[in-house]
């Protein structure tokens, strides 16, 4: 009964048996390598590096993608592994040299993740390779054996990933984006039906809206694991980020159109026809994200946009013919939506490797696709070399803690100083709260494991016994222990290590004592580093980055308005600063999701807050493509109204930033605002200007009203319920 209960508990915690399959692969590879090198080749060096190479790559590396992709990443990482082991072996002659190397390599390995999220999954494994090689004995002549053992382990592990019990292919970010495209396309069809036949299936439209909202929310960077999120510096990941932003804008604009449903059917409405064309293109673009999917064709959408432009209503503009404001609103919104749908399609072309033509550059929006990967990586690194980069803080904290641990282990001449750094690496987290949380299981598990293993060594001193049970301890440590919890995992890992080193260098029960002392020292260093260096983790950086991001967004809005009024050049620099701030705030947001949070931090609805900022850049670029700088010059009344609206929006951004800085920002409200209602304040001006100026004024004011609406949704009205908003 006890065994059945334990088995049921393990299955509930690992429903797909992914952890047990991974542990089984690791157990088989590590056992084969260790037995072959230690007892077959008779080389303790080969055995040590083979075993720890398998453990580092199989247990500490967290790699995304299907099994062939993970195997390919492991094999491609071999040159970096060789360099780390060679550097550690050559610097092991002196404690301070090894510690200096740990400081530099520890930072570089951790910080390299800003350029590619896949390197984040390899960071801990890379750290272990250098740590293991940087300890005495100083034997440069053994470097070939060390490299041979690690290479054998990684190659066998890569083969096992593909051939032995491969994991099911997880849902990738591209698949989530494709699903979101399908959901948004269905909502676009429903919105178009609502314009031409308002009474047709309103419940179905609401259902499609809710589904589209959920699917679009699922592509937020913070809702995806770091190794899956498209945060790399390369062109494809940049394109996927642009695709996600464009798809969010398509949904928001469609939501506004759905809220502006006319009271009577309009059978031949240009906005509805354009929405249906956008739905078809968006649906086809989603299919293009699948492996081997067809290339996105934009001819039909471009033709639909051209027809909508021709059908755009124009009044006389001299007072004889009052403009049809609701139709102006709907057509302007549909054209802005179509622009974002086209950006989504072009972004998918870049993400899938299709060539771009001159019409797809969008005034530099996709210009990065023409630059080399190294230049793109450098831009990403430079953006994170900032005082408020959460990733920079984490990298510095880890490197300093590991360097201090290396100095302590060397000065104290600990026999197994490797365990000190391993304990520091295990317990140190990105915030002091998370580090304290990892402290208890690390100490309790190590104490329990040391007591049990010490007792066993007093009773059993024959290394052959420990060789026989090696596969069992491997499976327990990396399979069962991981499922039972951190205390069990640490205890079983301690039992594994003492059993392994008993075969390499028998020391009796003193080995368990050394393990306990080394781990406690490493834990103390990790806790002190976590408390002393940026203890609040990403939550503090996120608040500061978000406030600056909102302030920079407000600046970009004001400069965009000045540009269309002819009082300033295009706001390229202002929009570039928003993009730079966006990189930091998104990085902080992703790290924030991996940390524990108190009630104070949970008072901020970060999805809604960041959405208010993320709408500025794509909206401004779309606006300026259709309303070039100076398009409203010479219309004083319009200039006064737009400057006043921009000033009110600036105040709203400043108020929101102040609330975020103090940890308060309410949840969004559910009801979107109708476009025609938002334009009430400009109705008196619509009969004063010419037809083209009226169109420009409607589109610019509609953009400002949409941004104000996205902020207003974060603040529920007095006595009103807080719910879920249309912005995602």
TrEMBL record:
Keyword Transmembrane helix applies: yes
Topology class, membrane: Multi-pass membrane protein
Regions that span the bilayer: 42-61, 73-90, 96-114, 398-422, 442-459, 464-481, 516-534
Entry GO terms, CC: plasma membrane
Keywords: Cell membrane, Membrane, Transmembrane, Transmembrane helix
Superkingdom of the organism of origin: Bacteria
Subcellular localization, as worded in the UniProt entry: Cell membrane
Residue span, Integral membrane bound transporter domain: 407-528
Family named by the database record: Belongs to the YccS/YhfK family.
Protein name, UniProt field: Putative membrane protein YccC
Organism the protein comes from: Micromonospora parathelypteridis
Origin organism lineage: Bacteria, Bacillati, Actinomycetota, Actinomycetes, Micromonosporales
